Amino acid sequence: MTIILRLAWRNLWRHTRRTWLTISAIAFSAMLLVFMITLQLGAYDMILDISLRVFTGEMQVQREGYLDKPQMRLSIPQAAALARDLRASTGLEAVGARAQGFALISSGARSYGVPVIGVEPERERLLSTIPHQVKQGRYLASVDAPELVLGATLARNLKIKVGDELTLLGAGRDGSVAATVLPVVGIFETNNPAIDRQVVQLPLATFQETFSMGDSAHLIAISGPGLRQIQDTEARVRAQLPQGRGLVLLDWERLIPGLKQLIQADMVQNWATYITLIIVVTFSIMNTFLMAVLERTREFGVMLALGATPLRIGLLLVIESTLLTLIGLAIGILLGGSIAVYLYFHGFTFPGLKELHAQFGLPGVIHPKLSFVTFTLGPAVIFVFTLLASLYPALRIRTLQPIEAMHRA
Amino acid sequence: MEYTVVCRNLSKVYRQNSIAVQALADINLEISKKDFLCLSGPSGSGKSTLLNLIGGLDLPTSGDVSVDGIALATLDRAALARLRLTRIGFVFQAYNLIPVLSARENVEFVMQLQGISAAERRTRAMDILKEVGLDGLEDRKPGELSGGQQQRVAVARAIVSGPSLVLADEPTANLDSKTAENLMQMLVQMNAEHNVTFVFSTHDKLVMDFSRRLIKLHDGRIVEDVRRG
Amino acid sequence: MQIYVPLLVTLAWRNLWRHVRRTLLILFALALGVWSMVTLAALTRGSMEQQLTSAFANLIGHIQIHLPGYRDDPVIDHRFAEPAGALRDALDAPDILAWAARVRVPAVVSSEQESAGITLVGIDPARERGLSFLANAVKEGRMLMDADDPGIVLGRKLAERLETALGRRVVILSQDSANKIADRGFRVVGIFDSQPEMIETAYVFIGLAQAQRLLRMPGAVSEIGLIAPDRNRLDAPLDRLRAAAPQLDVQPWTQIEPTLKLTESVTDVILMIWYVIVFVAMSFGLVNTLLMAVFERTREFGLFQALGMPPSQILGQVLVESLFLLAVGLALGNLLAFATLAATADGIDLSAFAKGFEMIGVSPMLYPMLKFDDALSANLLVFVLGLAASLYPAWRAARYVPVEAITRT
Q1: What domain range includes position A103?
Q2: Which chain A residue lies closest to C287 (C-alpha atoms)?
Q3: Are residues C184 and C326 in the same domain?
């Protein structure tokens, strides 16, 4: 075997320029793919992480049907108690009940109709970034405190500051009028326009009282240790969820289906581009393989005459192109990987990304995802394609006749 | 200017991976118009090298060559090309013809390079092909012609542009004896009718028998220069 | 220096077809590369154009006129008089295709079951034709008849959420000009569908005069939107409108939604980058193929030299070969691209990812749109750079020293 390897290696370098050109083609595409894939997956992770960590949580327990039609009366009875039980039985800390409603909120100068959310403040700190993004004043103190916090843009539009009072006017769970006046104790700023402009948070008990909810709420938000363990977390919660009460556990894919689809659509588009690129490069270099084989027809004729089998020669060719490909891929991974590592520390951005991202509350900088998969997926696909490309000329060896081959000019 | 070719103190040294090979040493030679001579000698004697130097295909290490009174050393690459185009015809041992052109197109090729009009090219090509006995085959590509036929086309192409000098390197090497003899007879006739000087480089006794002047080379030097009747 | 064009052309063309398979392979690579350039350009442009067009139709328009301050705080206080006199004349000028004045304020809509925060838009239906999406959007029931129509038109998604339907009543709550809460019931006369879907839950429409009465703002409007023939040539109308109404805030879409403009320029950059990448991928194959072809024909080139062909013509011959390859490859690639675009002219249905696209406000039907400039630049790039890349192999062909070339076995 080693003699074939040695022969293959030396054959590669008979025409250095040609070999280097081919290696460059492979290295180029490998580098590109490593760069793009690490960036792509890094972007997905970031979008997912931010989207979930801001508010939604990794999963939620809701009444069946609430997701499609979020009506106030579709609530979870004894919600806070259930949340406490789940915390105890699963060992997860980031579990909190929330109630959702709608009200007309007025300062002296203005009124707006906004969603209103009742939360368990200590739990919210573990579930969402909002409590940590209070820019003025403080977050909600306790679950029954008569106070509220709201987003910075909303506060600005209402022309109020910390300490001012706001009137809430809405419909309660049983259809009755829900009305109250509460002081603003804190103003948060997440840089996500949808949240900053619209969200008002009350302590859960205060909400329940105002909106005649009794002890019920609309959902229990749950987050586990991290996205990587999400399957595990889900299994744990599902095991402890009480049956027969019309409750369902929804993961983020159901909660924000658009997100998964967005990622999928982007993935499909990207891969279509990658594959096209790989095919172009493959056909580009297939010619090189083919012509090299044709050129050595006489040489192969001699080998056959000396007793080598077509299989042996074919194997030699495949090994040659494999070596060539591996060198190209190694260089490509090295180059692409270095760029990815550099960007991992410095962040990747281009003019316009900040503004485009701001629309969705994203930071405007992407960090590539460094992992074995992201580094090798693209090159692996290239390898498969080039291997197939090299098989074609190698197969032609089988039909070669020694004398005829040796006489070819 | 009675001499077609003049070589003075011509030497050629080849460098091959730091080994120096003296292919030609101090050659002095004059070739007259309408001469029909061959250079002979064993392999490595330098006959092909001398032919290449005369034809401007290679440059001497020292000494000079002139063709029709023009010193080759004074010419740049483009001018050398022009010289080969107008004054020198070549017939090689093999691979004489452009594979993608037909016999007629091969013959017309040099005339096209000379800028001769299409009509005149055609007439002269057909005439010369007839002269070498190939009319009817003019539209065949080289792949479709036998070895002998290919050499005839090569000769036709070499002559048709009206050169002063035709250099032929082992013209009969790939031919059987009958074909070779036919070829040589044809060349003698061309020499008589077209006022062209012929210089061959050869191993082949047949070619030597047909030549009027025999120059023997050995280890890069002329050892014998004989005229025959 | 004479150039023997017919000779070079004959030699180049015939040489290409000496090795049919090899030529076909490189042609395929070229065609595929060009196909991917043109097709991707059309798809990307189409998607972008669509985003823009639907944004304009979704009430953004090309130019908007407001009272200064409205854009930060879009409330009733920032209203101005219906256009008359100089402003009216400026609006009615021939270089404005359509314009409409609207009332546009935040409000709450309630049915018996639910309420939701929305933007109330008071319109004159006749003026909205040709300007916004409303004209063809009402799928059930009917559009408002005129500015006095007492009915209300809702989006389908909103109607579902509110559990209301045609013929039923809903209540609109908003702040009127005297800072009091105004409320009135409206009968649902029409239900509209829109792309993207979020418009359906964002806006409700009533008659302009009805809105003015409800909100106690007779003869006043919140905004004027308009469309011109060319979205990139708005200087003339802008100047005229600003001169006619110096006290008002007149802004083009590029200022109102800068991210749209950004999308356009980012698209241009992305396409150019893709072009260069594909070209580099193809060029490896092209250069290598030419190099090997030249190497293969060493003796032939030596023969050319021996026969007295000037070196420049030898270089020219190889360039002409490359030119043919490029021309045929480009032609094939363009043909394939046009065929693809013709086949997908009815739009590519990406509704499997519909929810994902919803999130970023894009419709899931993708219509390809080929801009002549995109196709031209792709072709020009490949052709010019391809010829440039072929200079190296061509130069090598002309550089052979004849005697080496001829005696090489």
Answers
A1: 59-222
A2: A21
A3: no
Q: Show which of C212, C247, C282 is a domain's final residue.
A: C247
Domain membership of residue A247 (yes or no) is no
Taking the Cβ of residue C353 and every Cβ of chain A, the question of whether any pair is shorter than 8 Å is answered with yes
Å between C89 CA and nearest CA of chain A: 34
Peptide bond into C196 cis (omega under 30): yes
A96 and A33, same domain (yes or no): no
pLDDT band at C358 (very low <50, low <70, confident <90, very high): low
Say yes or no: ipTM exceeds 0.90: no
Q: A21-25, A309-313, B58-62: lowest mean pLDDT where?
A: A309-313
Domain that includes residue C364, residue range: 5-55+260-407
Interface contact C310-B81, CB threshold 8 A: yes
**Residue C253 domain-assigned (yes or no):** no
Please name the member of C14, C303, C403 whose beta carbon is closest to the beta carbon of B52.
C403
Q: Which residue of C has its CA nearest to A73?
A: C113
A35 and A110 together in one domain = no
Considering C247, C278, C293, which residue would you say is the last residue of a domain?
Answer: C247
- Indicate whether C285 and C229 sit together in one domain: no
Residue with tokens 């402003």: C87
Task: Determine which of A173-177, B136-140, B154-158, C403-407 has the lowest per-residue pLDDT on average.
Answer: C403-407
Q: Is residue C61 included in any domain, yes or no? A: no
Whether C92 and C141 map to the same domain: the answer is yes
Residues A37 and A68 in one domain: no
**Based on the structure, what is the number of domains in chain C?**
2
Q: Which residue of C has its CA nearest to B85?
A: C308
- Cβ distance A280 to C116 less than 8 Å, yes or no, reads no
Residues 376-405 of C with CB under 8 A from A: none
pLDDT digits (tens, 9 = 90+) for C101-138: 999 998 889 888 778 888 999 999 988 887 888 777 88
**Judgement on whether residues A37 and A133 belong to the same structural domain of the protein:** no
In chain A, the number of structural domains is: 2
* pTM of the model as a whole: 0.75
Question: Do the domain assignments include residue A184?
Answer: yes
- What is the distance in angstroms between the Cα of C281 and the nearest Cα belonging to chain B? 31
- Residue spans of the domains in chain B: they are 3-227
CA distance C297 to chain A (A): 11
Q: At what angle do helices A310-346 and A257-295 cross, to 10 degrees?
A: 140
**CATH superfamily to which B3-227 belongs:** P-loop containing nucleotide triphosphate hydrolases (3.40.50.300)
Q: Phi and psi of B143, rounded to 5°?
A: -60, -20
- Claim to verify: residue C28 and residue C161 sit in the same structural domain: no
Q: B227 by DSSP, 3-state: which? A: strand
Q: What is the pLDDT of residue A409?
A: 46
